[in-house]
Amino acid sequence: MNSIYDELIKAYESIKDKITAVPKVALVLGTGLGDFAENIDNQTIIDYEDIEGFPQSTAPGHVGRYVLGYIGGVPVVAMQGRIHYYEGYAMDKVVMPVRLMKMMGAEILVLTNAAGGINKSFKRGDLMIINDHITSYVPSPLVGPNIDEFGERFPDMTEVYDSDLRNLLKLCAMKNDISIKNGVYLQVTGPNYETPTEIEMYRKNGADAVGMSTACEAMAANHMGMKICGVSCITNLASGMANKPLNHKEVEETAAVISDKFKRLIIDFVKMTEE
Ligand code: HPA
């Protein structure tokens, strides 16, 4: 058997009795956005450390647990704390939590993150719906023997971020009076921020925002046939754009400021997936 698949089956077996309701929507909460899990009713907590063979999140602001429950009656599972490539894990470990949420039964994946704004019209504090991504600067999580049980060897990537879900996000933003941008997210390995010249290059590549996560998770989820959407919180202007050095504190602080509109958007979105 494929060893990565084998590990996932073991992880699933070790938690399956705790899944009281099959989640419909899976949420990955990005840096500074973990508190969103407070909005989940009837919570069941599964700590990553209690899951067999599971990676542990070491990034500041990432707790390291699943929160299962309901938002507006819709069964959900949220990752309060994600795994990043820069923590030293191989890509198959980085995407393991997302794969496990699909194994729990989730059909829809909402990826969220903190990101640096590259598009010159973006401001610190903006929200951006991810239209597409660039992963050319990080390894693919699909390298290695294909997991046939999940998907095909050469998956199509024409529409990773589902257009119906993107439209639903736009609608929810409008209803809630939240102005929202659209754009292309580019994933880098981190943990260092970029140089101004790299940001120039990424802008020429067509990127609107840059971050250290998300696209690899979208790739693995797309392989498994999940319906995916993503929202970036523009926590800072990218390197060289604001005449000051970047730091993680600013990222966390801005994410906290955005958290109220983020919360309204995502709660409404989850509820609307049922309509
Ligand atoms: N670069 C990379 N990752 C990030 C940034 C950034 O500017 N801001 C938040 N995450």
List the SSEs and their pairings:
Layout: H1 3-15, E1 25-29, E2 41-47, E3 65-71, E4 74-80, H2 91-94, H3 96-104, E5 108-117, E6 127-134, H4 163-175, E7 180-187, H5 196-205, E8 209-211, H6 215-223, E9 227-237, H7 248-272
Parallel strand pairs: 1-4, 1-5, 5-9, 6-7, 7-8
Antiparallel strand pairs: 2-3, 3-4, 5-8, 6-9
Helix pairs in contact: 4-7
The structure holds hypoxanthine.
Task: Describe the 3D structure.
- The protein has 275 residues and is of the alpha/beta class.
- It has one domain (3-272): Rossmann fold.
- Helix content is 30%, strand content 24%.
- The chain contains seven helices and nine strands.
- It has helices spanning 3-15, 91-94, 96-104, 163-175, 196-205, 215-223, 248-272; strands spanning 25-29, 41-47, 65-71, 74-80, 108-117, 127-134, 180-187, 209-211, 227-237.
- The protein has a five-stranded mixed β-barrel.
- α5 (196-205) links the parallel β7 (180-187) and β8 (209-211).
- α4 (163-175) packs across α7 (248-272).
- The longest helix is centred in the last third of the chain and has 25 residues, at 248-272.
- The model has no long low-confidence stretch (mean pLDDT 94).
